Amino acid sequence: MEVVILADAKEIGAVAADAVGALLVRQPDAVLGLATGSSPLMIYDELVLRCVAGLVSFSRARGFTLDEYVGLSADHPERYHNVIDRVFVSRVDFAPGAVQGPDGLASDVPAACAAYEDAIHRAGGVDLQILGIGTDGHIAFNEPGSSLASRTRIKTLTRQTRIDNARFFGGDVDAVPTHCLTQGLATIMEARHVVLVATGSHKAEAVHHLVEGPVSAMWPATVLQHHPHVTVLLDDAAAHRLQLAGYYRETYRAKPDWQGI
Ligand code: GLP
Predict the structure, then answer these.
(1) Chain segment 216-261, per-residue pLDDT in tens
(2) d(Cα 162, Cα 60) in Å, to the nearest integer?
């Protein structure tokens, strides 16, 4: 796990966008894993700027989102499919239909989850997965207690996650759906490169467990310690509980510019 502590969100966005850009140069038809939430917004904004400037193109790329609320209507602004379209997909040059997500309106939920796993598999798997992390250590919507071997399935959201996400629903926790469909931890572990972003002191505890804690279903993101290529991009506030912060900074400073993340 490579831990990179950067000055601010802008720098995090640039470093992550460099990795996405380099991937798309090597492999224009790459498969991207796209997270919602506020953490990756700086990455998407930077990629939009570079796309508009002609420095990167998504015209042959495909994308898969991580998760979806169950039961939000197709036109609900907080439906993750609409969120990712608004904050990123519609602002760059993806082909129509190139980005898909789990179907939160499916009548046969197990079949929809299996179909989603199958679609990722048929696309050749995710080359680069962008991830955020919840304050309780969830990734996608794999809440504490999720099986480390889980696949795409329905989950009940914790009260904490619903409180955290109420800000997107006018501050009304009861307006936040109680269930979601989410890629499992084993699904996410199959991505070839995982880039996890966390900013702000409210993420420091989850980041501490993710990077330096024992692997445990109680802090689901810790499963990433078993992944061979994970990059964790942090600001100072999110990194402030890391015991080896000095070492991570020194290691990144000594890295040759050409190497990237
Ligand atoms: C949400 C999403 C996650 C996201 C996390 C953190 O519940 N399902 O994919 O990473 O919570 O969100 P944010 O980046 O807004 O803090």
Answers:
(1) 999 999 999 999 999 999 999 999 999 999 999 999 999 988 888 9
(2) 36
All residues at 6 or more sequence positions from 235 whose CB lies less than 8 Å from its CB, including other chains = 5, 6, 7, 8, 9, 12, 198, 199, 200
Amino acid found at 181 = L
Q: Which of 143, 193, 208, 209 is catalytic?
A: 143
- Rounded distance, CA 115 to CA 149, Å? 18
Q: Residue 143 catalytic? A: yes
pLDDT (tens digit per residue) in 56-110: 999 999 999 999 999 999 999 999 999 999 999 999 999 999 999 999 999 999 9
Is the CB of residue 132 below 6 angstroms from any atom belonging to ligand 1? yes
Residue in 138, 196, 202 to alter for ligand 1 test, most ligand atoms within 8 A of Cβ: 138
**Residue 108: active-site member:** no
CA distances from 227 to 22, 141, 188, 194 (A): 21, 19, 10, 8
Residue 14 and residue 238: Cα distance in Å, rounded? Answer: 18
DSSP 3-state of 244: coil
Contact 80, 116 (CB under 8 A): no
Decide whether any atom of ligand 1 lies within 6 Å of the 67 Cβ.
yes
Q: Identify which of 93, 38, 89, 27 has the alpha carbon closest to the alpha carbon of residue 64.
A: 89
